[in-house]
Specification:
The chain is an alpha/beta fold. The longest helix has 22 residues. A hairpin with a 2-residue loop joins β6 and β7. The chain has a seven-stranded mixed beta sheet. Helices cover 41% and strands 19% of the residues. α2 packs antiparallel against α5 and α5 runs antiparallel to α6. The protein is globular, with a radius of gyration of 20 Å.
Length: 165
């Protein structure tokens, strides 16, 4: 029998959320990067549909998988990957409203909703932290470039007859 590939710690975390019935949306810089923004970050921010008072459910998942709890909502997975659990991000509508607008992408082979870039911008603008404000011009340029590329019509090829045609 062939060996089955092991889940990465991030993939295992996402699968555990799903098994626990905890929906999540990838938000923040990593969501922007997944949509082409030329940024760098060291962590994954997940908006979890979970009352904040139930954060212990997340701690249990992290501990069960050999991760480390750095703070109530900041975790380090067994390979060092940092994950932030966000219960109510700034500047966004309800979880269900945003969920419906999010395309499904894949992280480590696991389907996950990804907050659209204009909504990432809205959240960062509302948060107003220096690090969020600093990336707004890059994110806005990325949205403009994506729109331009989307509306650009494909060039028509000019067919030329050869010397014999």
């Amino acid at each position: 029998m062939p060996l089955q590939p092991q889940d990465s710690p991030l993939g295992a975390f996402l699968k555990a959320l799903r098994q626990e019935g905890i929906d999540c949306i990838l938000i923040g810089a990593m969501a922007a990067i997944r949509q082409g923004a030329p940024l760098m970050t060291v962590d994954y921010d997940f908006w979890v549909q979970l009352p904040e008072r139930q954060y212990v459910r997340l701690l249990t998942i992290i501990q069960r998988q050999g991760g480390t709890i750095r703070a109530r909502t900041l975790y380090e997975l067994s390979d060092g990957t940092q994950v932030n659990a966000i219960f109510q991000p700034d500047g966004l509508h309800s979880f269900q409203t945003e969920w419906k607008r999010c395309p499904i992408g894949r992280l480590e082979g696991v389907p996950v909703r990804i907050l659209p870039l204009p909504r990432v911008i809205a959240s960062k603008r509302a948060a107003g932290r220096d690090k969020d404000v600093a990336v707004l011009p890059v994110l806005e340029r990325t949205v403009r470039l994506a729109a331009r590329l989307k509306t650009r019509k494909p060039r028509s090829k000019i067919l030329r007859k050869g010397p014999t045609g």
